[in-house]
Design brief:
The protein has one domain: RNA polymerase II/Efflux pump adaptor protein, barrel-sandwich hybrid domain (OB fold (Dihydrolipoamide Acetyltransferase, E2P), Beta Barrel). Helix content is 10%, strand content 51%. The protein is globular, with a radius of gyration of 13 Å. The termini are far apart.
Amino acid sequence: MALSARNTLKGKIKDVKKGQVMAEITVEVANGVDVVSVITTNSTDRLGLAVGKEVEIVIKATNVLINA
């Protein structure tokens, strides 16, 4: 599958918190660096996401805000 997004990170799932509709997936992309994604519980199940699974994160955003 080809994607237009250029920002991809590989990591390992560290935590999965499933609700009735949405799930919060925490992926460790480097030692001490986590990325958290909120996706549907249905997608979590369909993708077989579980702690320890190696995944690729794709980031596609039109805005990135920084506050200092």
